[in-house]
Structures are given as structure tokens and as C-alpha cells.
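Q: What structure does this chain adopt?
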Amino acid sequence: MLEGVLVDLVPYGKAFLENERRWYNSEVYFWGTAGDRAVFTRAQVERWQAERAEGAERRASTSVWFGILTKDGKPLGDIALDEMLPHHRVALIGEMIGEPEYWGGGYGTDALLLIVEYAFDWLDLRKLWLSTMGINARMQRAALKVGFREEARRRWFWYADGVWTDDVMFGLLRDEWPGRDALVERLGLRAREEV
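A:
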């Protein structure tokens, strides 16, 4: 477990799996898949979960996946290091907060700080990157707050709700990272009373 200020990163287990169908059939899926809107049956989600479980061992060398849990035990979503290339010491970060009432409250930023610290301090990675739709202002703000820099913009790359939007790519080098404690202080992240 990785302990943060507002959230902890924990193994992605049953409590998270039970929420996936609801998360996939909501606005959350639109933001997490760069504009896709779909309806998923229980059978589809259970099939994906089984396929993911079968391939977990194969992906273990290129992916690390955590559930995001509030301090009072509420599953919020997930965060992962994916497409890890050990020789190059780089990885892609993917994150999803599945509970919209927690958007904009610092929970995703806290999870991002934890995964970056883990990647740099535990896995000895050299560079991290992420990408998001040009219309996803929340993710862009979180990336910039944590120290990522915009590195590329692929124009009119994603089709979301009937309009074309850019793909914005961000990168963070280990040498640019001031450390989690410094950023927690700079951002003023503080523990909240959970209801």
C-alpha cells in the first residue's frame, strides 16, 4: 500500500471490480477513453475482468496497477504505470477517478503524486508520460501541478461528442521531480474529514 494525504494506493481487488460496471456506464468512461460513449452489460464487464485476470502474469513486467482508496475506505478508481520499458526506464501513467463527486477535490492529484514517487523512487524509472484529450482540463491541471510539462500536441486526434479535439501529451523527467513531500507542501494538500 502507498499512503497519501487524501488517498491510498492499494491492490486492485474485489471492491474495485464491483464498481467497474457503474464506472464504465457513466461520464467517467467518456473521459477515460478519450471521448467514447458506450453501454456495457454485466456479462461484458465480467468477461473483461476474467480476461484481465488471465493476462495479469504476462503483463506484470510492463504494468503496475493500483486501486485508489479514500482514507475512509471508499474505492474511487484506479491508477497504473503501463507500457513500462525497463531498458529505457520509461512508463505511461493512466488514471481514472470513477466517482464524479470526488473530481476537483485533490484526490486524483494525490494519487498522481504517489504513483510518480513510486515510479521514480522504487522502480528507478527515468521518465513518465501521460496523454489526455485537449478538452480534459482537469487532467491537464493535475499533470501541470505535479510537474509534468506539455511535450506534444496532436491536433484534432480524438473525436468526442461530435467534435475533434487534440491529444495533449505530458512528460516528467526524474531530474525535474522535486519530490512528493515538497509538492504536497507547495500544493497545500491536507487530510479531510471523511463523511
